[in-house]
Amino acid sequence: MRRVNYKIIAEKAGLSHSMVRKIMCGVRKPSMKSALKLENATGIEAPAWIFPERYNLKDRVRELAGQIND
């Protein structure tokens, strides 16, 4: 399994590392503005960031990490 570097995602999205980590851990839901920034940074649609359980967000981010690391 690939390790996801939230810092890279955060930098690309213009968000804090802490915020991205909290979103990925389910502690916090992003605003629509933040979700759109994450969509632009990762290509993963905004609703997936707001409703991660419906869109298998963790698996999709791991897949993205694999593409970045390859």
CA-based gyration radius: 11 Å
**Helicity range:** over 70%
Q: What's the story with the biggest beta sheet?
A: none
Strand content: under 5%
Class based on secondary structure composition and strand pairing = mainly alpha
| Total count of helical runs of at least 4 residues | 6
Uncertain spans: none
Number of separate strands: 0
Q: What do the pLDDT scores average to?
A: 90
Series of secondary-structure elements, N-terminal to C-terminal: HHHHHH
Q: Distance between the terminal alpha carbons, to the nearest Å? A: 13 Å
How many structurally independent domains? 1
Shape: globular
Task: Write structural notes for this entry.
The structure is a single chain. With 70 residues, the protein is mainly alpha-helical. The chain has one domain. 71% of the residues lie in helices and 0% in strands. It has six helices and no strands. Helix 1 packs across helix 2 and helix 1 crosses helix 3. The longest helix has 13 residues. The chain is globular, with a radius of gyration of 11 Å. The protein starts with 5 loop residues before the first helix and ends with a helix.
